Amino acid sequence: MRIDIITVLPELLKSPFEASILKRAIEKGLVEVHLHNLRDFALGNYNQVDDYQFGGGAGMVLMIEPIDKCISELMKHRDYDEVIYMTPDGTTLNQGMSNHLSLKKNIIILCGHYKGVDQRVRDKFITKEISIGDYVLSGGELAAAVLCDSIIRLLPGVLNDETSALTDTFQDNLLAPPVYTRPSEYKGMKVPEVLLSGNFPKIEQWREEEALKRTEERRPDLLK
Ligand code: 6GU
Known about the structure:
Layout: E1 2-7, H1 20-27, E2 32-37, E3 50-52, E4 60-62, H2 64-77, E5 82-92, H3 95-101, E6 106-111, H4 119-124, E7 128-131, H5 141-152, E8 185-186, E9 189-190, H6 200-218
Parallel strand pairs: 1-2, 1-6, 5-6, 5-7
Antiparallel strand pairs: 3-4, 8-9
Organism: Croceitalea vernalis
Binding site for S-adenosyl-L-methionine: 112, 132-137
Subunit structure: Homodimer.
């Protein structure tokens, strides 16, 4: 998979890909992530990428021309399955969307900033608009990092047995059950007996029950 991210703040998106699972996925060649500084496609001597909005009002808007130049350049070299715009008024991200996107070959992610982008960018280029929740971030960069993490960890070969995505919360519309590690007793607090029993069918049954209980208590909406 190849992910091209267009942003006015590439610095903000470097470190998420330089540690742990995402770093290893890139090193293994399972994913390529390319950051593109919108300013490299800017206009005039001032390297302008944003401007005041027509009709008046506070806040700058990312201009269509630098974005058009950047996307058109990328599209010269390969076909893209999706051009995603990160925006708080997009569809809220969920596990199903990440599963779906993890099957794509090439995607572009455009990070919004300030008051957003010229509507004509959205009309002409964008195939999906994604939000990561009902709160406002200063820009789409951190949201893009969240989206990339949720996609890349699903790519075959990225996770090993210990970190398998199959038992994740949300993977079957259930929250994950509680987990414990050594010691089996700490300051009087005991690990549930069944987990120490070695009876694996029973352990599996306990985990299913706990997952269901936790989901009923915390996220009954997932069970509907
Ligand atoms: Cl994708 N962008 C911004 N700026 N804020 C957000 C968001 C995205 N998702 C939730 N809040």
